[in-house]
Amino acid sequence: MVKSVIIGVSGGRAHHHADAYQHVQRGVIAAVSARQRDKLDEFADKYDVDKRYTDYREMFEKEKPDLVQVSTPPDSRLEILLAAEEAGVPAIIVEKPLAIQGEDYLEILEFASRKPRIKVAINHQLQFHPRRRRLQQLVLDGAIGEIRFIEASSGMNLAYQGTHSLQAIGAFNPAAPRTVFGQVTGAKGLQPNIKEHYAPDQSLAAIEYDNGVQATLRCGENAPRVPGGSAIHQHKRIAVYGKSGYVHWTMWGWESFINGVYESGEHEYPEEDVLGQAAMCEAMFDWLEDDKAVHPLNLEGALVDFNVILALYASALNHRVIELPYEPEGQLVQKLRDALTDGRDAR
After folding, report:
1. Among 236, 223, 238, 225, which Cα is nearest to 273's?
2. Phi first, then psi: what are they for 241, rounded to 5°?
3. Whether the predicted model's global pTM rises above the 0.90 cut
4. Three-state DSSP class for 63?
5. 296: preceding bond cis by omega (within 30 degrees)
6. Which whole number is the average pLDDT over 109-134?
7. Same-domain pairing of 224 and 90
8. Is residue 126 within 8 Å of residue 296, measured between CB atoms?
9. Of the candidates 150, 144, 179, the residue with the CA atom closest to the CA atom of residue 167
C-alpha cells in the first residue's frame, strides 16, 4: 500500500486530495502537515488521520512517505521539492501553478535539469476526468480526423487556471508549442494577494504547435461562460476541431460531432473531479512501480506549459510573436504590473 502524506490544508484542493482516497485502491493518507495547528487538527479530524505535523521536514523524516501531495502557495514549491528529494521521497504531486514568474520558473527548470531522483507531477486532475479522458482518447484515436484548430478557455486568470487550459490543449494535441502571440489587460490580478497568484485580469493568445495545429487561449474576464457553471472557477472548457468533426468539453457537459453524428450530454463536475483526482494518484502509483510508465502530468511537460505563459507575457509587452522555448527576461510580472497600472498599452 502506497503511503501518502499531504502538505497544506487551508485550500479546497487539499480536501479534494483527501476525498479522492475513497476511490484510490493502492494508497492511504498516512499523515498531514500544516503550519496552523487549528486548521491541521480540523482537517485531520475530518479525515481521521492520526499523524499530524507542523513541520513537513519532520514528517518526511519520521513517516518515510512514498508520495507527497502539496497544496501550498506557489512561493514554497521549490523549497518543498528540494526537501522531499533530500529526504529520499520517491514521488510528489504539486498543486498548480508550478510557478508564477520567470525567476521561480528558472529555478525549477534548473532543478529539473539535474535529473532529480524524485518523480514529480503537477495536479492537473482534469486530465483524468472520466468524460474528458474519453473525448481525449477519441481524438488521439483519430475519430475527428487530422486536428485543425483548438480553442481553450478558463474563467479565472492565467495564474489560477491558465496552466489547466494549456495542459488540456496538450492532452488533445501532444505536440510541442512553437510560437506565441499574446495580449493582456487588467491589473487587479497583479496586485498583492494572499495566495501570491499574479496575472493580468484578461489574456488572449494564439499558439502554434510544431505539427501545424493552431490554438487560441483565453483566460479571465474575457473567457466565455459555461452553462451550468456558477462560481468563477467552474468555467473551464476546450473544443478541438478536426477534418471529420469536433469534440467540446466543459466542466458541466460535453458534445461531439463526428462523421455527421451529433451527441451531447451533461455531467456533475464534483463527481467527475473526485474520480479524476483518484485516477491521477493511481497513475503516479503506476510510475512508482514502473519507470517507463511516466505520469502524463510530469514536471517537464509543466515547465513547457509555463514557458508558454511567460512567452505570452513577453509578447504582450514587446508587441511581437515570441518563439519557443523562451528565455524569460527579468521581472516580467513587475513589468506587466507597471505597464497595466500606469495605463500604458500592453499589447
Report:
1. 236
2. -110, 130
3. yes
4. helix
5. no
6. 96
7. no
8. no
9. 150
